[in-house]
Design a protein that fits this description.
Blueprint lengths: L1 H27 L8 H15 L4 E3 L3 E4 L4 E3 L6 H15 L6 H39 L9 H28 L4 H6 L7 H17 L2 H4 L1 H31 L1
Antiparallel strand pairs: 1-2, 2-3
């Protein structure tokens, strides 16, 4: 009964949010440099500031830094992470708003917050994608098992997933309250199940539904194994820390 009341009151926001995510995915999922400048330009500026890199824009290619041999191309825009962050914020927390007016405001905050947070996290990821391989190479740890592509996947998954967990925790603390869905569906459970679902579903589940496994079995399985391994590794560490904290 409670679920029906929630859907009746907030259903319009769930439908609108879903439609917006699908439209953004369709419009910018495979967008060109020019179409994604609203994400690429601030990401280049922020990562350049963090890492001390200098970028110049090459039409049709992206932002290039010859000093570190780095290209911020459309695939590095972070649009997928923005959609994940927006979806998680909206669908997880909109029902905590007492009125529809506040719910509409939360939808706007979720979208704007996801955009700004994506730029913040993506800049960190870009800098680490440059620095970490250099550190590993200088330490002699860049082995054949850890190819450049695998390391890039590991860094991306670690930064994006950790960023999503932090965003969830921040939003949960900001809004407080038990949350209806958490109360009904996940009583006493590990609090990071929700962001883990959003991340793995969008990053691995959606490509699977789009037949990525059939199109490139080896590539998809390797990407899925690395991504899932990084995420579950982070969750295992957090779960262990939470158990230790509860025992104190």
């Amino acid at each position: 009964m409670r679920t029906v009341l929630i859907l009746k009151k907030y259903g319009v926001f769930y439908l609108t949010g879903a439609a917006l995510i699908l439209w953004l995915k369709y419009r910018y999922g495979h967008g060109s440099c020019e179409e994604l400048l609203w994400l690429l330009a601030p990401a280049a500026a922020w990562s350049g500031f963090l890492g001390g890199f200098s970028f110049f824009y090459e039409p049709g290619v992206g932002y290039i830094s010859h000093s570190v041999r780095l290209v911020i191309a459309p695939s590095c825009s972070g649009v997928q992470f923005m959609l994940i962050a927006f979806g998680m914020l909206l669908f997880t927390f909109v029902h905590r708003m007492e009125t529809r007016k506040r719910a509409a405001g939360w939808m706007a905050i979720s979208l704007a917050g996801a955009y700004g947070y994506t730029i913040l996290v993506n800049g960190i990821r870009i800098v680490l994608a440059v620095r970490v391989p250099a550190w590993l190479l200088s330490a002699g740890l860049f082995t054949g098992q850890l190819s450049s592509e695998r390391l890039h996947t590991v860094i991306g998954a670690a930064v994006y997933f950790s960023g999503l967990l932090l965003l969830y925790q921040a939003a949960d603390r900001l809004l407080e309250g038990p949350g209806v869905w958490k109360e009904r569906l996940l009583p006493g459970s590990f609090p990071y199940v929700i962001p883990a679902f959003w991340y793995l579903f969008i990053v691995l589940g959606v490509p699977f539904l789009n037949q990525a496994l059939q199109k490139d079995p080896r590539g998809y399985l390797e990407f899925a194994a690395v991504t899932a391994g990084v995420c579950f590794g982070i969750l295992t560490i957090l779960y262990g820390c939470r158990k230790m904290h509860l025992k104190e």
